[in-house]
Each structure stands twice: as C-alpha cells, then as structure tokens.
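Hi everyone, sorry if this is the wrong subforum. Our group has a chain we'd like a structural model of before ordering constructs, and none of us has done structure prediction before. Sequence below.
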Amino acid sequence: MTTKIFTAKELKKATNNYDESTVLGQGGYGTVYKGVLSDNKVVAIKKSKIGDQSQIEQFINEVIVLTQINHRNVVKLFGCCLETEVPLLVYEFITNGTLCDHIHDKGRSSLLSWEKRLKIAIETAEALAYLHSATSMPIIHRDIKTANILLDDNYTAKVADFGASRLVPLDQTQLTTLVQGTLGYLDPEYLQTSNLTEKSDVYSFGVVMAELLTGKKALSFDRPEIDRNLATSFVSAIKEDRLLQIVEVHIVNDGNIEQLKEVANLAKRCLRLRGDDRPSMKEVAAELERLKKREKKPSEDTDVYANKTEYLLSATSKSFDIDVGTGGSTSTTAEYNSMNDQLLQLVDNGR
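Answer:
Right subforum, don't worry. Here is the predicted structure as tokens:
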C-alpha cells in the first residue's frame, strides 16, 4: 500500500488551522481532527501530543503496521506528515463513530439489532484473523476494544488504532513486552507473564462479544464489586445458564435464542484464562459465520440482510491483499528494524 507524504500546509488548510469544531476525539494519545483535502476527500488526522517520545514511537509503529495491511475491515492509512513538530497520520474518515458509542448510548443501542451486532462481530473477527495469519509478519493488535472498532453508514466494522500493535517475527510465537492495553479487555495471562501472543487479542475480542451481547461496559465502578469486571461476571452467568438474565433485552426474539447461546459460549471460550485453551481468531471467525448461516430467518427483511452480509463476507475473503514474505523470518525482522530507523530519521529531520 503506498503511503503519501502530506505537507503541513495541506493539513492545516484541511482542518481550517486545526479549528476546535473539527475535533473528532481526544485521548491519552493526542487529538483526532476531521479534515477535507483539496480533492474534497474527507479524512481523519491524528496528531500526537507534543514532546512525548513514546507517542512518536507508537506513531512510527502505526505507519509500519498499517502499510502492511489491506483489508476492508481495517481503517486505511492514506499517509503522514513529518515536517510538523509532532508527526501527523492521515486516515480514511469513518462516518458513524465507534462501536462503543453505539452500544452504550441509549438512543443508539436500540437501533443496533442482533443481526447488526453479529455482522460487526464477524467482520471484526475476520479482520483479526487476517492480521494474525494473512500478513507477511503476524500482527497482534494489543488494544482490541469497542472504542477501537469504527462503523460506517452501513454498520461495516473497521478496526482502528494500531499504535500499540506489534509485528511478531515469524521465528517467535510470543513476545515479552511491557504490558499495554486497556483494563477490562486485557488478557490476564499477558498481564501476569508479559508474554504477548495472538491469543491476547482473542481474549479482548471475547470481551467485545460479551459487550455486544449484554450492552454492559467492560469495566464499571458503578456496578457491585462482583459484577465490576464484565468478563468475569459474563463467564459466571454462562456457566450458571443465566444468559437470558444478562443479555440486552431488545436483541432477543423467539428465533434467535439458540444462536445467542452459541455466540455466548464462543465468547466464553475466548475468555478462558489460559491462552492455549482459547480458539484462534480464524476459528472464531469461521464459527461465527457458521452460526450466521444457520440462523432461523423470521422475516423476509432478515433474508435480504443475510444475503447482503453473505455477499459482503464473500467479497471480503476475495479482497485480501496477502503479502507473503519469501525470505526467512530474520530478513522480515531486519526489514522491520530498517523501516523503523528510516522513519525515525525522517521524523528527526522534520523537526
């Protein structure tokens, strides 16, 4: 994927000199602005905090990771700007906000039917399966959560925010790293051992599925202590056959109870404490798709929706741009390091 180098002037103009009204979101990482380029393309521009070296390293990491990826359920990186005081990243603009907003906003959550939720789960699982197994070097996202899954107007899922992602050299099955991620979604095994594997993403995805089923936040101090952590209380409820007590009321109907139970059991498997006991993302994606095909269709509308989803999913599997490295793992690792050095040099020169 070619990455364009934007000028500071272009991006200043696109955001009306970073006007307050163009701010899409703010967080520990910095600020994201909505911009309109001279060719009228709408973009999201991510500006990291000034003077934060770790942010700059994450920025470089994100450029390296996203240039390896081409998948319809991963946010596209158009380019970057290196001549400003802090580097800027330019992404495609996703119109409908985050999955987190849709699940936890009362008005929006009622519009998020079970069919839509299942479609979002399948698309996110496919994106993660692709990251783990279809790129030249496996990529562990490391911060999968509903706030990092964006939705477009058709409720198509787009996985975003690769600042914490890691490329795993092919000769390693795990990396020992400084623990990074979001509480409530963090793999407990990774938290204990600092050993990062792709199964850490599987755990986080299990929490996302629990959130889609229950409408509850991953971690909430407003809940009684026993229910504070969604993963723990969700697994207990499934073991005790209490799913229908905790599932979001409006997504249940006579025709989908069996399917909800099977998806909940799959989420429970993703949330197993030992990484080795969890399924791979490829298995999760395949299982969700199988459940989607098996659903009872109570109305014609659902038929149309299912066909559309099926069509989209078959299109997904064809649109993978798989970059298969021919060399051994060491050359891929060296390639990653040299890309890293080149980008760091560019950033330094840009200042």
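For your construct planning: The CA atoms of residues 106 and 215 lie 10 Å apart. Residues 329-350 form the longest helix (22 residues).
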